[in-house]
Amino acid sequence: MKRILIATDGSPSAIEAVELGLELASENDARVHVVHVVPSADVAPWSAFGMSAGAPHVETPVDRAPVDDAVARAEERGIPVTGELLTGVAVDEIVAYADSHDVDLIVMGSRGHGAVARALLGSVSLGVLRETRRPVLIVRAAHAPVHA
């Protein structure tokens, strides 16, 4: 393993994924790529016709925070790291980034929403598993609540 992609959103499971990904990178003398994906447009919660697209998303410091945090953790350990904030559909952007940088492993967290929420909302981690041909390591936060 020489290139590890860590996808993060700052959630507890993503932070644990960052830690595990950095540990793997350190053990394998690998380069780390850290990404966080923001939507291209902000969605208005509800309109008269259900959910509707709003204005184009404008990047904020909050968007960059998960990437900056993971990059700082890698730099503290002397691990070569690249951090990028991507815009678009999370699954598509993560898989495309992994392919374009020829990563050996994708590491990401799972929020553990449960079967009902997954069926209604979908899951980025499951989407990446379905779409990529690369190995994926999904990390669940040790203290994450389990929902049915």
Briefly, what is this?
By secondary structure, the protein is of the alpha/beta class. The protein is built from 5 helices and 7 strands; from the N terminus they run E-H-E-E-E-H-E-H-E-H-H-E. It has helices spanning 12-28, 61-76, 90-100, 115-121, 124-131, and strands at residues 3-7, 31-38, 41-47, 50-56, 81-87, 105-110, 136-140.
Low-confidence stretches: 116-121
- The helix content, as a percent range, equals 25-40%
Mean pLDDT: 86
N- and C-termini, Cα separation: 35 Å
What is the number of helices? Answer: 5
Percent strand: 25-35%
DSSP, total strands? 7
How do the SSEs run, as a string of H and E? Answer: EHEEEHEHEHHE
Task: Walk me through what this model shows.
- It is a single chain.
- It is globular and about 45 Å long.
- Residues 116-121 have low confidence and may be disordered.
- Helix 1 packs parallel to helix 2.
- With 148 residues, the protein is an alpha/beta fold.
- It contains five helices and seven strands.
- The strands form two sheets. It has a five-stranded parallel β-sheet, sandwiched between helices. Strands 3-4 form a two-stranded antiparallel ribbon.
- It has helices at 12-28, 61-76, 90-100, 115-121, 124-131, and strands at 3-7, 31-38, 41-47, 50-56, 81-87, 105-110, 136-140.
